[in-house]
Amino acid sequence: MSERLTFVAVHAHPDDEASSTGGTFRLLKDQGVRTVLVTCTNGEYGDDTSGLKPDHDEHSPEEVALHRRSELEKACEILGVDRLVMLGYRDSGMRGWPGNDDPRSFWSTPVDVAAVKLAAVLSDERPQVIMTYNEFGFYGHPDHIQANRVTLAALDLLDYEPTLYYNAIPDSVMEQYRARWAEEARQEAEERRARGEEVDDSPGSGPPVDENGEPIRMGTPDDQIGAEIDISAVNDAKFDALAAHHSQIGDSFWMKMGRDRFRETMTKEWFVRVRDPHERSGVVDDLFVDYR
User: Fold this and answer.
1) pLDDT of 202-240, one tens digit each?
2) Neighbouring residues of 276: CB distance < 8 A, sequence distance ≥ 6
3) Domain extents for the chain?
């Protein structure tokens, strides 16, 4: 086909693009697809470069945003992103944080206002395939939820129908992740006790909950997965893109894996097909299967 193939991912913060679509971005770029990243917020409520949390008196949201922008640009270079669009909204912070009520925040921005900005990008690029989060924002973050709402509203402003996917992790895979995290936490606790360090055995805050206090199901039923993308050939690029976001991800479980284990473990990315003008069913291994 002569029509230019274009992929747009609508993410909430700098670093989100690497975690759930890093492999997909690099793979599509290598296949000749134009790739566009829309990042809705500046990420002001991330950790600063010295590890200070947003509630620390010396934490500077503006400096964090500037640093995260530089990390994002580096990650985009690694992933081969053709165009980065920053919508420029302020990070809203986690649910219940004061930043939720900041009129500059993404969460406080009227959906229709942000949708017009996003629709202008989509109308310019005319992507066949768009990706964002589900209605719970995957794990309940306000900015992820808002990205879902704004994307859906923007699609209603277009004069054509692209295919829409949500990022996802199958329940079966999430169970494996949870088991591995629990075992790693147990081993770390044992090592700390052996060194004579005090270990906090409290259960912690528990799983994320929605606005009604109900636990959010981070996994997706396996039978709802619409695309399973093999990224094993490009997961070095995904690892490097994650590493580029060192201020936020330097101590993450991804980095603790090391490159070799990452290569063995992080071999796929999954998506739920939400809207599809081709009405395809089943699981595909190519987001552009009906467009090539």
Assistant:
1) 544 445 555 566 666 788 999 999 999 999 999 999 999
2) 163, 164
3) 6-169+267-275, 171-200
Instruction: Give me the residues paired with residue 163 across strands.
Output: 129
DSSP annotation of 54 reads T
Q: Which of these, 83, 75, 70, lies nearest to 22 by C-alpha position?
A: 75
Cα distances (angstroms) measured from residue 173 to each of 105, 170, 180, 270 = 33, 5, 11, 10
6-169+267-275: what fold?
A: Rossmann fold (3.40.50)
SS3 209: strand
Cβ–Cβ under 8 Å, residues 5 and 291:
yes
* pLDDT, tens only, 144-155: 999 999 999 999
Residue with tokens 């636990």: 215
The token duo for 125 is 């690029």
Q: What is the helix (H) or strand (E) element at residue 275, kind and residue range?
A: strand 268-275
Report the chain's C-alpha Rg in angstroms: 19
- pTM of the predicted model as reported, rounded to 2 decimal places: 0.89
